């Protein structure tokens, strides 16, 4: 405390020295009166204003209300002194919590501090703004001001770090900010590769949150995270001040693990990782686990164990998502089981949670190792800590399957008898779900659930016995056995009320099936004897049962009538109403016709999904962690970002299958429960294209007017490229695109910072791409990511697939280069508007940049020269296509080239495209005849081409293509005409 604040020190001393509450209250009240008088002075200095505001803050901390001082706090914030602003923002934060309507009064002051050239002032404003995250209007108003710090090339890492955390708070308050500003993501993601570990940590938190809503836009973060982890964990590139108990930057390492886990929920989603990156991830995980286990076993320091455990569990959690190897999962489970004996409760809990996650993998690779240590795990159900017991129960649930369900349920039933009240309900729910899910014998299922009801008593959720009733109604084969089991427990006389409820339904509905072993009269008295000791809930279920007994057995009708009449005077309205209605039904003079119409057999239940699934809590959440996050409605981003990237249509995973059609009342296989899970219907997609064109005759092109229009203008094709939207690419993208549509290698893009060289190798339906990125600037390029995004109209049936073989390095030093290798596999026909899109993000000289380019991997790149055909053979095949496919097999277009052409130039262009020029087939030297074969994985297609050049102006061209694959001719015509009209 500075010496000049001695008035505040004295006030705090007086409060602490007060011996009675009343004395403290008097001192506070006298100080409040004094502060109010001082605030009324017009010449109050900033020092005194700050001192009195500090006193008000301390008074509030004592539990007293404050109703003045807001304006003084605002005036104090006008000062340029850091200390004054610091106290001002603390006070304003308090006042806004007490009265949020005061916010508009400080908007201008906050904007002024955000625009200040002093970074310390900016940091104070960001801190304060993050505390306003509850206000969505403020989030939208200040988001742009915060983002300017993130993208600023001159802002310090500290300021950017605070801006990232503030932006995270704003996004949580108003996620619509991503809808209106999706381009921000491309500038945020590269910050993960920052040299500042603090900035990298903050960026990880922000990107991880964004990934929940726009998973595709955050895909470049995967490569950045892998590279960052590799440099820290494997190469040891970490400053000494970032080491914590011998571990390099453990908090950042764990945060990067969590980010990768979010981006790669399971091995089926690991297409974002190339082979090299996947090997790096496995090496990172292996080193992290080995180092952490050694530290856990070799140190007695709690700090070392906590730090090592933190890294260990994060690495194991990621390993469960990435490494599909059963051996690795087995080793990880074994290593965790060895840590169960630790005396530290936190470590034991985290170990159990990690075991649950490994066991929840779709391939069940780690279940065997955990099963081998089942007895060690099971004994923790008797641990004194309830969180350990619950985590142990989750592990047991996850490792259970059809092979061990009977033994697991037997052990859990034994434990249920001694379990404390806090655990009985959870154990009962899990036994019920396991018995239903994995039961091979329906009789075993019934006996298990009935025993569960007898042991758990009133701690069993109603859904447990209701589920038994539902399954019994839908399966005729178990109804008799269920009734017999119910009677067995009723005869003991010692059973919980849940057993009485389920017995009332079973005997009332199916009691006639066991009349030989238990007559109806006995069934009635077994239930009637407990009626007056039962709760109102149980009575309401017994009365309908007695009504059904009345219909069946004449000998007990007087007792049932007496019961109904007696209950008409019940204090409970529901019981009274039922008894009155039933009494009227049984006393009507219609020979019980209405009664028989009312009392009918229970129809089958249509819903086959168990309501108990929702009560499993964290267990089902573990399985959901191996799926992509649900995409909320706000993922429909309708601007430049979506013009370049089609939204990923991820179906929402609710953890339940779609409900099947109503089941048959008769089970198809006696003694076995009907399956409760069915597959949703498969989706069908279709692709079709058609056009009208006039077949080309064998003669040469006719003379035409200087206007360039053909006399037979009706031949003009309507198959021009149709783009539903105009993509926004980086400036001068066309030059490289059309160059490499023409050639298979060359400069794809170049600016003052970056040069991209493109090389293509054809191999039937596969196109091997190699992109070389060269750093032309004098500065290092960091956070460099290159993302190839499919742009197919059909997500379920894309025309091609992308496979990344090697990703470029995330750091490119001045004068150096890095390489990216990608395979494009053509599966079916796709148009030029559907070619992949390349997005490059990088930071150079503190400036975050984004380049967006259209890849020249058109379908024509899978074309190879065809066989040399004679004139007769060519026209025979030409006519065959016209006869068999008609207009569907032909594409024709008349267009004007952007410059004069010669037959030699056109011949060269077609050869580079992949056609085989057939000589001497057309008597006109200005016409070209070609053949080729285009490869896709679904089918190969013969392609025949005729090109006619107008000899008068050498710019008008008629291009006709016929293909054996419907729709392909239009794509080839459009590609070649687009190239000739835009060739540079």
UniProtKB/TrEMBL annotation:
> InterPro entries, from UniProt?
Adaptor_Complx_Large_Subunit, AP2_complex_asu, ARM-like, ARM-type_fold, Clathrin/coatomer_adapt-like_N, Clathrin_a-adaptin_app_sub_C, Clathrin_a/b/g-adaptin_app_Ig, Clathrin_app_Ig-like_sf
Q: What is its main location?
A: membrane
The membrane-spanning stretches of this chain are none
One annotated Gene Ontology cellular component of this protein: AP-2 adaptor complex
Where composition is biased (Low complexity), the residues are 678-695
Sequence segments annotated as region (Disordered): 652-717
Q: Which GO terms describe its molecular function?
A: clathrin adaptor activity
Detail which positions bind a 1,2-diacyl-sn-glycero-3-phospho-(1D-myo-inositol-3,4,5-trisphosphate): 47, 51-55
User: Which biological process terms from the Gene Ontology are attached to this UniProt entry?
Assistant: clathrin-dependent endocytosis; intracellular protein transport
Specify whether Signal is a keyword of the entry.
no
**Cellular localization per UniProt:** Membrane, Coated pit
Q: What keywords sit in the KW lines?
A: Coated pit, Endocytosis, Membrane, Protein transport, Transport
The record's listing under Pfam families reads: Adaptin_N, Alpha_adaptin_C, Alpha_adaptinC2
Q: Where is the composition biased (Polar residues)?
A: 696-717
Q: How does it sit in the membrane?
A: Peripheral membrane protein
Residue span, Clathrin adaptor alpha/beta/gamma-adaptin appendage Ig-like subdomain domain: 738-856
What function does this protein fulfil?
Adaptins are components of the adaptor complexes which link clathrin to receptors in coated vesicles. Clathrin-associated protein complexes are believed to interact with the cytoplasmic tails of membrane proteins, leading to their selection and concentration.
What protein family is recorded?
Belongs to the adaptor complexes large subunit family.
What is this protein called in UniProt?
Answer: AP-2 complex subunit alpha
UniProt source species:
Ambrosiozyma monospora (Yeast)
